[in-house]
Amino acid sequence: MAQAGANLHIHGVSLDHRYGGHVHHEHSRTRVLRVDELMIYPIETINQLGSDLAITEIEFDAGELRFQVSNCGTMDVSDIGIDVVPDNLYSERQYLRLPWLAAGESEDFTVVLSLAKGSHQILVAVDPSGDIIEPEADRENNRVFLDCVVD
Asked: Strand pairing partners for 112?
């Protein structure tokens, strides 16, 4: 909200994206001489950008863990960490890095795991340290536990 004596800074775009603008006047020792035309349209929608990372399509077969990291949100993300932890053994943890994931895109991963015969549980967690800005409710799909049996 504009305040008396404050500098002016306005952004906007019409719904059809035909008209848009940016009024930016924040120079402390200057004054706007005149504004020839300023059209303010009613606000119909407010869009908030946000990421929503998810682990999807996970499977373990023949010593290979395959999974997909998806950005189900509307904001690109960068420098994403991924943990793969078999049987809660962090000494066996594999750490992967994804440099960039655009909004709506996915990246496939394959990790070789040498698991002994028997039952196992594998954790795959994207952004395990919580560095990516993401609403708390959207973080539930950042961690997946996969139960598998090696014959």
From this structure: 64
CA dihedral 84, 86, 90, 95 (to 10 degrees): -20
Q: pLDDT (tens digit, 9 = 90+) per residue, 76-125?
A: 999 999 999 999 999 999 999 999 999 999 999 999 999 999 999 999 99
Structural tokens at position 90: 């962090």
Dmax (CA) for the chain in angstroms is: 80
Structural domains of the chain, ranges and CATH numbers in brackets? 53-150 (2.60.40.10)
Interatomic CA distance for residues 124 and 148, integer angstroms: 13
Planar angle of CA 54, 111, 120, nearest 5 degrees: 85
> Is the entire prediction scored with pTM above 0.85?
no
In sequence order, what E strands does 14-132 have?
20-25, 53-61, 64-71, 77-86, 94-101, 106-112, 118-126
